[in-house]
Write a structure and sequence with these properties.
The chain is of the alpha+beta class and about 160 residues long. It has two domains: about 10-65, no CATH class; about 75-155, Glutaredoxin (3-Layer(aba) Sandwich). About 45% of the residues lie in helices and about 10% in strands. It is built from seven helices and four strands, in the order ααααβααβββα. It has helices at about 10-15, 25-35, 40-50, 55-65, 85, 90-100, 145-155, and strands at about 75-80, 115-120, 130-135, 135-140. It has a four-stranded mixed beta sheet, covered by helices on one side. The radius of gyration is 18 Å and the shape is elongated. About 25% of the residues are buried. It binds FE2/S2 (inorganic) cluster. FE2/S2 (inorganic) cluster (FES) binds near residues 122 and 128.
Length: about 160
């Protein structure tokens, strides 16, 4: 069932950014900052009150990989698949996380807690293979270490967080 969202924030955003067609990207960025994705109702509201057409807005939202049209979990787990991490076993790390979280890469857990993603180099190649859990960086991972790391977040080990 879809949750009811309050789109009054869209009006506030547009009051600040302006209504011009050239403002599509900043408007979408601000909406995503607020909802953590781009709800369809928010996009419809943008089209109602700006000069941006639905085809232009939807085109921008789907063209740029920074924008999400689906809700994400509270915590985004990003597995680096840059060259160093790829060589270091990123594919196995992703597979381990898929099994651990019982989702496929790109999906969100049923409890909406975690979303699993693959990303390009996150800039700390000496720590390869690297996983970001929210804002925390974890490096030199193995399948066992990544499970232990996740246990600390999920509380399975009885640890912190
Ligand atoms: S390739 Fe993974 S941090 Fe650079």
């Amino acid at each position: 069932m879809l949750e009811a969202l309050d789109f009054s924030i869209v009006d506030e955003i547009i009051n600040k950014t302006g209504k011009g067609a050239e403002m599509a990207i900043p408007i979408l960025q601000k909406i995503q900052e607020h909802f953590r994705y781009l709800p369809m109702g928010a996009l419809e509201r943008v089209c109602q009150i700006t000069e941006i057409t639905p085809s232009r807005l939807y085109g921008v939202a789907t063209f740029y990989s920074q924008f999400r049209l689906e809700p994400v979990g509270e915590v985004i787990i990003k597995v680096c698949h840059g060259t160093a991490c790829h060589v270091g076993g990123a594919a196995t790390i992703t597979q381990t996380l898929e099994e651990y979280l019982k989702i496929s890469n790109g999906q969100t857990t049923v409890d909406k807690k975690y979303t699993l993603e693959s990303v390009a180099c996150v800039g700390c190649c000496s720590l390869a293979p690297v996983v970001l859990v929210g804002k925390d960086t974890h490096g030199k991972l193995t399948p066992v270490k990544v499970q232990e790391t996740m246990d600390r977040y999920t509380g399975k080990s009885g640890g912190e967080k």
